[in-house]
Amino acid sequence: MKRRQFISGLGVAMAATGCTGISRQARSHVVVIGGGYGGATAAKYIRMWSAGGIDVTLVEPNASFISCPLSNLVLGGSRQMRDLTLGYDALVKTHGVRLVRDLAQAIDLDKRSVKLAGGASLRYDRLIVSPGVDFVWDQLPGAQDKVLHAWKAGPQTLALRAQLEAMPDGGSFVMTIPPAPYRCPPGPYERACQVAHYFSAAKPRSKVLILDANPDVVSKGALFKKVWAQKYAGMVEYWPNFKAVSVDTGKRVVSELGERVQASVLNVIPPQRAGAIAAQAGLMNVNKHWCGVNFLTFESTAAPNVHVLGDAIQTSPLMPKSGHMANQHAKVCAAAVVDLLSGRAPEPMPVLSNTCYSFVSDKEVIHVTSVHAYDAAQKTLIVVPGSGGVSSAPGELEGVYGMNWARNIWADTLN
Amino acid sequence: MKTLFLALVLASGSAAASGERLYATCSACHGTSGAGSGTALPVLAGQPKEALVATMKAFKDGTRPATIMHQIAKGYTDAQIEEMAAYLSSRAKK
Fold this sequence. Notes:
The complex is a heterodimer.
Chain A: H1 2-17, H2 22-25, E1 28-33, H3 37-49, E2 54-59, E3 65-66, H4 72-76, E4 85-86, H5 89-93, E5 98-100, E6 104-108, E7 113-116, E8 121-123, E9 126-129, E10 133-135, H6 155-166, E11 172-177, H7 187-202, E12 207-212, H8 221-230, E13 236-239, E14 244-249, E15 252-255, E16 260-262, E17 265-268, E18 272-274, H9 276-280, E19 293-294, E20 299-300, E21 306-308, H10 323-341, E22 351-359, E23 365-375, E24 380-383, E25 389-390, H11 396-414
Parallel strand pairs in A: 1-2, 1-9, 2-5, 9-21, 11-12, 11-17, 12-13
Antiparallel strand pairs in A: 3-4, 6-7, 7-8, 10-18, 14-15, 15-16, 19-20, 22-23, 23-24, 23-25
Chain B: H1 2-12, H2 15-23, H3 27-30, H4 49-61, H5 69-73, H6 78-90
Helix pairs in contact in B: 2-6, 4-6
């Protein structure tokens, strides 16, 4: 049965490429949409673990990979965008990934093809969708044109840094946090620390106000609160249960309860859902926001032969939406795709890990970590009992490890 | 060509691949195949299996202090640690 499925998969590959050469007929084709931590890792590992036997095309509109992790340090002033910007060259040259710089516009599940904005179509045997998040601006009417989110590293990161630099001393940086789940649970709190770090040196009379839609700090709560109380005493203020619903000027935000807060620099992190291509293809089948997957393979629960990775998925319990997690999803998925396209059953007991380092100043760091293993009875990934935890306190040694984490995960994802 | 491809992937599906795939849960910090590209962490590829197993078990039972590895090591069974160590020790030192 499995062998027949494999052979029929080859038939599709043959029809897809239209090639008649014998060597081409035997090759399967995987298309990956999105070159972030999930998609780039999947592309590399499928090439590696199939020993080059599976063709992989990666579709990514941006010329470079820009890391969201560490991008808060650009706001704090200790890193530049160029420190977080990496090329896709090694994926092509070392691993033989075919890179198509284009935007995936539509997925045709019946024809197994992806239509690109540039007009071309790509046929696939298996498709991997790693689109990241999109912002749900309709919950904050008009805000999109008035305020910066800076929640995708890039031009908005630099624009927000410029606003902070232009702000007079004595001003206030106000940041709103959406209801969980959102990309990078500790990210907003790290951002507050980074802005406070900058203010401490450059604008010591200024304030940082965190307006959180959640009832409490979502990640590393005790550690962040201690840092705000001690290291940034009198500068950082935290309000829970403030759900932003509108921005009436670029400098004033309004809560669900009608509270109005004035800012010198306003930063709105909007509510989020899976990236647009997931909605187009009907993959966003959990609460109309996230993509359900089978955690053995990361295959969509909405469409066969389509896998979804990274921030776009409905996560398992206690699994954060992080770049590290996306890198891990990608490896379970890559192993499963190689197995399935080779007529083998996928690994029955996959394991994943997560580590997130947050910089509370330019050098001091706190972490959260966890190990997740598949539970056959519950059919989901659960945190291995007894594993995981957070730092005992911020430290510079963890800062060194944090920077090494970045170097290694960038290499593991792209090189 | 097809035979070659099948032979290659079947080889990678052997017991050794289990350690390789398990190790991939570590490589975001320790480098693809244990190569490592940072300045602070030891290169794991090519280390003796016994030393890797002993270190992981010491992290796991708390006899070796750590910033983070004591929390991560508890996520793996002794059998998984053996498999990962066997894979890493089989890799060439970089």
